């Protein structure tokens, strides 16, 4: 073959590959944003990290965007103002049902599940001197700190306590502030929804004797029946106070995508995030749970077709057709 013929052949192959790449990327946006939460929190660090990773790997412009968190992210992704976002199962369920306080009555069904992120456990702490060693021990009218107003903890933990028959006075504040109030006797209990170990609890157990209260099997089952939470175990090595693993529940966090995004685009994004967990853990250690086998933790949202395809092909996911958008 002459040199000119060889060059023509190489050019033809390159042209064909380019055309195929262009076809694969049909409808892809040139840039994207990921709705996260406030700076300094896990959502912002985690979300900005995977946004930058995806942008770099796919040759696009993209990044994390500061938002009001899970509820606002559902709204932003549903309307298409953000291509991607992050949410917890509770806010996702409320948004789909039309009870998102940002837009009451609007059923946000155009936000689809994309991939599992990590869990937010629910845990209860009291001073040992209070004599409160179980949920049943919490006296009627107890002052319970539920975290910052409007947080996941403040939204769901009071409802969980009511479900378990606890009568209480509600208190709000930052976790460190609530820890101080507990130690000073201004609160009876703190109910946390936060990654463990919770710094405020770790600080408390250094300064005083505390009880980290687990749910009974019956209480755990009751909460799981009533709320979009999963079974969770707080390991005995999490706190020096714990002598054995503690039974709890957790709410899963999921990345979400606007349901109208191209299937090939979302499939490629999921592939970048889910194919190399070590890279994700380097972004944030919470990503240790960002693994393919956790696809089944979504019981609330319909899957984006591109994401569903990835998990079915790479994780053996058995996703029913009626749980896939457009299916």
From TrEMBL:
Q: Please name the Pfam families in this protein's record.
A: NMT1_3 (PF16868)
Protein name as catalogued: TAXI family TRAP transporter solute-binding subunit
Which keywords does this Swiss-Prot/TrEMBL entry list? Answer: Signal
Q: What is the lineage of its organism?
A: Bacteria, Pseudomonadati, Pseudomonadota, Alphaproteobacteria, Hyphomicrobiales
Look up keyword Zinc-finger and say if it applies.
no
The record's annotation in InterPro entries points to: TRAP_TAXI
Q: Which residues form the signal peptide?
A: 1-22
Q: Which domain of life is it from?
A: Bacteria
**By its UniProt entry, which Gene3D superfamilies does this protein fall under?**
Periplasmic binding protein-like II
């Amino acid at each position: 073959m002459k040199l000119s013929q060889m060059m023509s052949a190489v050019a033809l192959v390159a042209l064909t590959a380019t055309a195929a790449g262009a076809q694969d990327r049909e409808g892809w946006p040139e840039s994207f944003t990921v709705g996260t939460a406030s700076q300094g929190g896990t959502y912002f660090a985690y979300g900005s990290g995977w946004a930058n990773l995806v942008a770099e790997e796919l040759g696009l412009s993209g990044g994390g965007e500061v938002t009001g968190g899970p509820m606002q992210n559902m709204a932003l992704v549903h309307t298409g103002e953000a291509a991607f976002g992050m949410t917890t199962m509770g806010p996702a369920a409320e948004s789909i049902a039309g009870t998102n306080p940002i837009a009451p009555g609007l059923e946000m069904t155009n936000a689809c599940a994309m991939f599992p992120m990590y869990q937010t456990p629910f845990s209860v702490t009291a001073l040992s001197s209070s004599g409160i060693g179980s949920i049943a021990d919490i006296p009627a009218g107890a002052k319970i700190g539920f975290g910052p107003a409007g947080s996941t903890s403040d939204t769901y933990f009071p409802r969980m306590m009511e479900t378990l028959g606890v009568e209480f006075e509600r208190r709000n504040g930052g976790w460190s502030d609530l820890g101080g109030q507990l130690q000073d006797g201004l609160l009876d209990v703190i109910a946390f929804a936060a990654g463990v170990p919770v710094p405020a609890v770790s600080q408390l157990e250094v300064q005083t004797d505390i009880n980290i209260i687990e749910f009974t099997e019956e209480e755990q089952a009751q909460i799981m029946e009533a709320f979009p939470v999963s079974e969770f175990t707080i390991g005995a090595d999490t706190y020096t106070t714990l002598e054995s693993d503690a039974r709890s529940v957790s709410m899963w966090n999921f990345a979400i995508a606007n349901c109208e995004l191209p299937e090939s685009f979302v499939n490629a994004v999921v592939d970048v995030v889910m194919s190399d967990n070590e890279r994700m853990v380097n972004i944030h250690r919470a990503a240790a749970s960002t693994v393919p086998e956790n696809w089944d933790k979504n019981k609330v949202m319909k899957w984006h077709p591109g994401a569903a395809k990835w998990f079915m092909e790479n994780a053996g996911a058995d996703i029913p057709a009626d749980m896939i958008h457009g299916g």
